[in-house]
Structure formats: C-alpha cells, structure tokens
Amino acid sequence: MFKIRISLVLFILIGCSELPENSMEYSRREIPDQESWGVTITLTDEGLRRAVVKSGHLQKFHDRQFINLDQNVDIDFFDDNENHTSNLLSQFATVDEKTNSMKAVGQVIVVSDSGVTLFTDTLSWDNRKELVFTNDSVMVVTEEKDTLYGVGFESDMGLEYWKILKPSGVIGQDNNDD
Question: Cα separation of 69 and 78, whole Å?
C-alpha cells in the first residue's frame, strides 16, 4: 500500500509540473488566426491585379504574415496591364504576405496563354523579380508540341521567356539522304 501511495504522489507531482515557457507559444503559432473554405483572394502590386488565387481551404497566420492553401489551388496570373498570362494548378500553395511571393507544391501544372505548359512538383513565384523557378524535375510542352525535360527551370509568369537549367533527353534527327 505504501508503494501505491508513493507512486500516486509522484504521478501527481509530475502531472502538476509546469509546461516549458515556450510550449504554449509554439502551439499557438501553429494554430491559424483565420480559416476559410472555398476562398478567392486577389494579390495586387501598387493597385494592379497580379494574381487571383482560389482554394478549397485557406489558413491565415497573422504573426508570420503567411497563408497556407491546402485544397485544389487554382491561380490566374496577370501582367502589368492586368492581361491574363497563365493559370497554375497545384495541390497546395503558400503565400508570404510580406512579399506576395508564392510556392506551389504537388502536381504543379502551369498553362500559359502563349501556348507553353509546364509540369513539375514544386514551383516558386518571386513577386519582386516577377520570376517563377524550381530546382525540381520539369517537363515543358511547347505550342509546337515539342516535349522537353530537365532539372531546374526559370521563367516569366507568362512562360514566354523560359529556360531549363539542366536539360536532358534525346533529340531524334531524320538523316534521310533522298
């Protein structure tokens, strides 16, 4: 009976000990300040529409100035004259509200109005440089139906001026001497 009482006292003392100071802060930072479902948000730069973002679910973290989009992300991008340039689809995306930069993750597909389609696993948008880029594997299909592969990619959002950093593959030539 004495062992049971000592065990009970130890259990109560351990159970009543204080949590580390930062444990409440850490868990608070992981809880969003706002959540929305079926959202559409517009990102602007100096009053000009740069992107319209749609997602099935949004989590907003005010302290970190961070937005997490985690269901069926669909983003339309616009140029300096607010003309549509491309559409991006992905499973997830994050937005840094300090810079309006984004990162799309999971089965990323970008279809440009110029006729180029990009497939990759991740794609980042640097709003200040107006540049999309990835270090992952890419597949690019051109308007002429050429398919190019490689690792690493940089482009404007309209996919008009793009480059594959480490291209790979074989190009076939017809050596018919007729």
Answer: 20
pLDDT in tens, 117-168: 999 999 998 988 889 999 999 999 998 888 999 999 999 988 999 999 999 8
User: What is the per-residue DSSP string for 77-98?
Assistant: EE-TT--EEEEEEESEEEEETT
Mean pLDDT for all residues in the chain = 83
| Structure tokens given for 82 | 């607010």
| Domain ranges (residues) in the chain | 30-168
**Reduced to 3 states, what is the DSSP secondary structure of residue 5?**
helix
At the top level of CATH, the class of 30-168 is mainly beta
